[in-house]
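Page 42, continued from yesterday. The earlier attempt failed because a stray header line got pasted into the input along with the sequence. Redoing it now with the clean sequence only.
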Amino acid sequence: MAYTANVLRVMIASPSDTAEARDAVEDAIHGWNGANAQIKQTILQSWRWETSSVPVLGGHPQSLINSQGVDESDIVFALFGSRLGSPTPDAVSGTVEEIERAVEQGKPVHLYFSAAQLPNDVDTAQLDGLREFRKEISRRGLLGEFSNVSQLEHEVWKAIEYDIANLSLGVPVLKVTDSEVRFSVQPRQEREIRDYDKKGKPRYSTRHWFEVTNAGSHDAEEVVFDSVGENASMYLAADGTPTTIHAGQTRRLNVARSMGGGGPEILRIQWKENGEEKGREFHVG
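This time it went through. Structure tokens are written below.
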């Protein structure tokens, strides 16, 4: 079922030693979308330089990541393991430059440091630089830690909920063409008790209907419905009398089904819009 939603881009920033953690953040974003996108009318779109950036010449690689990633994102998650990252012309590392740029632009930035055991081949110079950066950045806000990817996914969900509540997104609005009738058809069914057998056990039947909605901004006049599927088992409980379906109105169209058939079930809607005859067919079974 279609719905309107605000779309937020979420950038995942980190040095090269946090691949598993980067995957965990993206998994958390996908999981949040599956559970909340339709209800909260918000979709999160993850952005990672290795999969989302567009190859192009014309500047230092970090400046291009900044323009494509940081500048176009709404939320930034930054992760650190045992490395600070490679230096750039303007910062001690690419990840640090991305963090500072996002902060300057007023975007929500969430920093998480790994508390897992350090690798045996840890680069001590990188580790010292990371510790110095953490000491400095801790004076500017609250930092997070994660011992494993499951904990990190939980922290990401918590941060997303916090951001959604504080971004004042408003209700998304779908713009439609003024002079348009737009029909949608949603099949529905409901199981109900038909009668009872001699032992008092209920016997059931299934009731079918279509919800026909005019989601446009103009009324549809002289609307008629037909079942046009070849060898179909669908019969419409309509007398063929033309009707009007106003803009934004939903009409219930009852359907009867018979045994046999098996062909495609097609509902044809014909109507007049501003005096012009129009029609559309919907495959409904």
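Notes: The two ends are 16 Å apart (CA to CA).
Reminder to self: strip header lines before submitting.
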